Amino acid sequence: MSNASIKKLATKYIMNTYGERDIALVRGEGCYVYDADGKRYLDFLGGLGVNCLGHCHPKVVETIKRQAETLIHVSNLYYIETQVRAAQLLVENSFADKVFFCNSGGEANEGVLKLIRKHAKDKVDPNRTDIIVFKDSFHGRTLATVTATRQPKYHVGFAPMMPGFKEAVFNDLNSVNALIDDKTAGILIEPIQGEGGINNPEPGFLEGLRKLADENQLLLAFDEVHTGCGRTGSFMGYQTFGVEPDIVALAKSLGGGVPIGAFMAKASVAEVLGPGTHAATFGGNPLVTAVCETVLTTILEEDLPGNARRMGEYFAASLLKLGEKYDNVAGVRGKGLILGIQFKEDPGPVTHDVIDRGLLTYKMANNTLRFHPPLNVESTHIDEAVGILDSSLAKHAG
Ligand SMILES: Cc1ncc(COP(=O)(O)O)c(C=O)c1O
Hints:
Aspartate Aminotransferase, domain 1; 398 residues; seven-stranded mixed sheet; 15 strands; Aspartate Aminotransferase, domain 2; 2 domains
């Protein structure tokens, strides 16, 4: 099938939530993907930060084949060996003692919200039900997580939203302090706001949240769906910033492309979720957790967080050089391999032109083109991406 014929059928059969587009991706290898017409793209969108080992990594492919021939799905009414091993890797390389597996980032955050409330009810004060979240955050599309997502465009048409959320301002500790009262149970925050424009925490901000949480008996939860599993230059984003949360939500890179999410916590927090309190039919099934184990092992054994740190610095420096050349570049945002080039004004045709030239990226609301290449990306790929951007900017912004 061609791009056009796939688009025609999609228009007929698929709900239009993602809008119209012209490309159908059908094959991938490493940092590259190919569309149905055979055109090759350097994939720096990485399935929105999911393909941490690139496309069709041999170890992932081998694991899927092996596990598919062994056991694909069983119920959590029985123990699952691959799930246990994936959890062990997460626990042995983080602050957490216990893990719950689910299927997506939204579902992971949904579990985090339930855990914060249940912890307050069982261990602090049953009247504490409110959770502080942040302007421009993104936590998912279920009714609770889209309420926690403080971008009004995602709320339109879905009222009434869920009760129990209060909105503070990212990087403003006073705004958080002002919201804390005898109904507050916890704080949910992305250590780097991704979807909201790639906003880095200012020095002291996450430390300040930790202090406020401790002083007021609140749980501090980090949504690391995007920042987790190596992307910021450490295994977990919180390690990059040196601030330990009470709960972490994961997804995206956790499965390297298979749908999986998780949340994890210290035993003293996790213990409030006893038998029957939370579940997911597919959560942590043998197929996805076998892949998760392979992905995490590869990230750790090959020091891919280190590569993300080094390549992130190289990429950021290369983007900054474009800033010296073109007036419309406002700066570079992000950390590790969550990066964006921000423009002073809408970069207009550049957004589509770079894709036509074979570089996959995506423009966010604050005039930023975002990049999340695989964690094993090499400097030659970065040179290629920057070269494409350079040519496009020379044509349209020079
Ligand atoms: C920080 C963050 N949290 C949660 C989500 C939602 O994840 P999912 O789309 O897997 O439900 C996303 C997705 O982009 C995200 O970036």
